[in-house]
Design a protein that fits this description.
The complex is a heterodimer of chains A (419) and B (301). By secondary structure, chain A is of the alpha/beta class. Chain A contains 19 helices and 12 strands. Chain A folds into 2 domains: 182 residues, D-Maltodextrin-Binding Protein, domain 2 (3-Layer(aba) Sandwich); 187 residues, Periplasmic binding protein-like II (D-Maltodextrin-Binding Protein, domain 2), CATH 3.40.190. The two termini of chain B are 29 Å apart. Classes of the chains: A alpha/beta (419), B mainly alpha (301). At the A-B interface, helix 3 and helix 18 of A face helix 1, helix 2 and helix 12 of B.
Chain lengths: 419, 301
């Protein structure tokens, strides 16, 4: 082919592409579109269709796009979308990721919308709604709620001569010790995010000072606690898998039937039940952690700053987190929601359909004044990253408790001080 | 006449550039521009939500003076890199064995090579199970031999985690090294060995004086692959340990990812990337010098 012909082909292709792109973009601009990105709920396809149908009854002119991402890829995907200027309008988020986004102005302040729609806001649990406040502004509405609790293996309790769940921290450790032997461990905890913090809270230990500016955890009490937990870990009383920073392995280990108590969030029930055929209401009990302390692991819906349709997005958020929309999600995902009325319906539904999970779900609505591990720290992820590896080293016997907490204090303070 | 020749040359050049342009454009878009932007970013306070501000050397100061994890990941990367010769040594032994005229040597070659095409994620999962404290094969064998009571938490121990991941990495790449070395071995003229034998050279002398010197280019190639591997072995670490426990298996590449996407510090991650890049360029330069300064050179004909 000659150069002239090649040039002709190149120009022709470019013109055709430009015309095609122009036509497509004109078509796309004729209709409003919002997008929602959820956190690892690919199974919710049917429910999402119902949501969109309900939404179209009110807003038939708005297209809804659904994107679902696994937790491991959520943040990477979202931040690249933000940089590209195509962030989803609504995001479903858990943990402390949102604090980073909110503190840098990446999210819409929902306070005025929540104040305007009083009836909707009054239907939400204030304790869970407050978990999404940063510097006096509300950035999220509770979507589905979960917090940590104590699951216990009734068979192992019976074998050890124990009648019911522990009421105090000392009892917790004593029961765990009693059930340990051979391949059996008395206790296991999940530890991603701040899920292990109830162990500290029950012993009166705070992570940071009330003004959130300095570490406050390095106290003699904390050293004694970490020493005790580390010793228990070395002796096998607390299973070492507890400190791996993952959740699949601890849940899997509990499902194997060799763990006396599992400190985890409520959805763990369905996970270990699916792996352990022995799991039912007669063999696994659910109770509050001693003192009623728990760490929320709830999800909320938040709005990206870059949204072009905030009112349309807000309507969708309200639909998904209240009334029929919330009920659809609860039944579709076996979770409780942030909406009081929907939960009343959901509890009846679960009592009828899955009675075994009801004791665990009941704990989710109790002791809401004792939620811990949800500090509104703009650098939550960095603080976690500074604290946890040191704690892990102490638990695995690689550092003394004092050394680990000294080092963690130094690192946490550095994170809090730096820009 | 001269004008016609010049015109023809110009047209030829245009045609060459026309065909080169897409590749160059992609290379510039995906390599050069990001690298340059990364350099700029490392001197700024930047987040996806805020306008950038000049930071000077702030991130570099933070990295060098305060960030223990950076130093640990730097050290781990160096250890990972230093482990490459172990894999090469293993591969050399295997290559020598399968180069001898034994029955079924093609089968052995295939078996050894099989680990290489396996996806790294799959390799990570396989070794995760092998190392499992309770049901892993390695702990089962150790327990059966009476060498350990409770299982060894290979991937949950700061002492064992890095060596454990290195073993998995070597296992994956050893087949590839073997093929490179085997090709090198088969290119050594048989007549050299025959002449040496006639002169009374022992097997060790033949290996030391003939095999090793003539295998040098192949060994060097394996070493370069090993270095690249140590800088890019993200997926294996991500699947097996996610850099833990307590950053014991954190490599520079996994740390950069963690800082950027888990901690949201893109500016600081950019500074880490620049240091990583500089370290890599230094090693490439060093390797080039050690190989006589001709690595990558194209022979002119």
């Amino acid at each position: 082919m000659t150069l002239k012909r090649l040039t002709g082909v190149a120009i022709g292709t470019a013109v055709a592409m430009a015309v095609g792109l122009g036509a497509t973009s004109a078509l796309a601009q004729s209709q409003k579109k919002i997008s929602i990105m959820t956190w690892n709920i690919p199974y919710f396809e049917e429910g999402m269709k119902k949501w969109i149908d309900l939404y179209h009854q009110k807003r038939p002119d708005v297209q809804v796009e659904w994107i679902d991402k696994k937790g491991t890829e959520f943040s990477t995907f979202y931040q690249t979308q933000v940089v590209a200027g195509t962030a989803p309008d609504i995001i479903d988020i858990q943990g402390g990721l949102w604090l980073e986004y909110a503190s840098q102005g990446g999210l819409v302040d929902l306070t005025p919308l929540m104040q305007r729609d009083k009836e909707y806001t009054a239907g939400l649990y204030p304790e869970f709604a407050n978990g999404w406040r940063f510097e006096g502004k509300n950035y999220g509405v509770p979507f589905y709620i979960s917090k940590t609790l104590l699951f216990y293996n009734k068979n192992m309790f019976k074998e050890a001569g124990l009648s019911g769940p522990p009421q105090t921290f000392d009892q917790l450790m004593q029961y765990a010790e009693k059930m340990t032997g051979g391949e059996k461990s008395g206790l296991m905890t999940l530890n991603f995010d701040w899920l292990y913090w109830p162990f500290f809270a029950v012993n009166g230990i705070e992570l940071v000072t009330p003004d959130l500016k300095k570490a406050a955890f390095n106290t003699p009490k904390a050293v004694a606690l970490v020493e005790r937990l580390a010793k228990a870990t070395q002796a096998g009383v607390i299973n070492k898998i507890s400190w791996t920073g993952r959740w699949v392995e601890p849940n899997g280990a509990f499902a194997a039937g060799n763990i006396g108590m599992l400190h985890a969030h409520a959805p763990a029930y369905f996970w270990f039940q699916s792996k352990g055929p022995w799991v039912n209401a007669d063999t696994v009990g659910a109770a509050n952690f001693p003192g009623g302390w728990s760490t929320p692991n709830s999800h909320a819906l938040l709005m990206s700053k870059g949204t072009k349709h905030p009112e349309e997005a807000w309507d969708f958020m309200k639909l998904a987190t209240s009334g029929e929309g919330a009920f659809i999600f609860g039944t579709g995902s076996n979770n409780l929601t942030g909406d009081k009325a929907a939960n009343a319906r959901l509890m009846k539904y679960f009592e009828e359909k899955i009675p075994a999970v009801v004791p665990a779900l009941k704990t989710q609505l109790e002791n809401l004044d004792k939620l811990v591990g949800n500090w509104p720290l703009a650098k939550d992820a960095q603080v976690k990253e500074a604290f946890y590896p040191e704690l892990q080293a102490a638990m695995m016997g690689e550092k003394s408790a004092k050394e680990a907490l000294d080092e963690a204090e130094k690192k946490v303070n550095r994170v809090l001080q730096r820009r | 006449m001269a004008f016609a020749i010049r015109k023809k040359r110009t047209r030829e050049l245009l045609l060459i550039w026309f065909f080169l342009a897409p590749s160059l454009l992609i290379f510039a878009l995906y390599r050069i521009i990001p690298l340059l932007w990364n350099g700029v970013l490392s001197f700024e306070f930047w987040s996806p939500y805020k306008p950038a501000e000049f930071a000077g050397l702030y991130h570099y100061e933070e990295m060098i003076l305060y960030d223990d994890v950076f130093w640990q990941s730097f050290w781990n990367t160096a250890v990972f890199m230093a482990s490459a010769p172990i894999g090469i040594l293993f591969a050399l032994v295997i290559a020598l064995l399968v180069d001898t005229p034994i029955r079924g040597r093609n089968v052995y070659r295939t078996i050894v090579f099989m680990s290489y095409p396996v996806m790294t994620v799959a390799v990570g999962i396989i070794w995760q199970w092998l190392y499992n404290e309770d049901v892993g094969l390695i702990n089962y064998i150790l327990r059966s031999l009476g060498m350990s009571g409770r299982g060894i938490p290979f991937l949950n121990s700061s002492t064992y985690a890095l060596p454990a991941v290195i073993v998995a990495s070597i296992w994956q790449v050893v087949g590839f090294y073997m093929i490179i070395l085997l090709t090198g071995l088969q290119n050594i003229p048989q007549s050299l060995y025959e002449a040496a034998s006639i002169d009374g050279a022992s097997a060790w002398q033949r290996f030391k004086r003939i095999t090793l010197p003539l295998l040098r280019p192949s060994i060097f190639l394996c070493f370069v692959i090993g270095i690249i591997n140590s800088f890019t072995n993200f997926d294996l670490i991500y699947v097996m340990t996610d850099g833990g426990p307590s950053h014991a298996t954190e490599l520079l590449v996994t740390y950069i990812y963690r800082v950027a996407f888990k901690l949201g510090q893109f500016d600081y991650a950019a500074a880490l990337t620049i240091v990583n890049f500089a370290f890599f360029v230094f090693l490439a330069w060093l390797a080039n010098r050690l190989s006589g300064g001709e690595a990558g050179a194209v022979e002119s004909t």
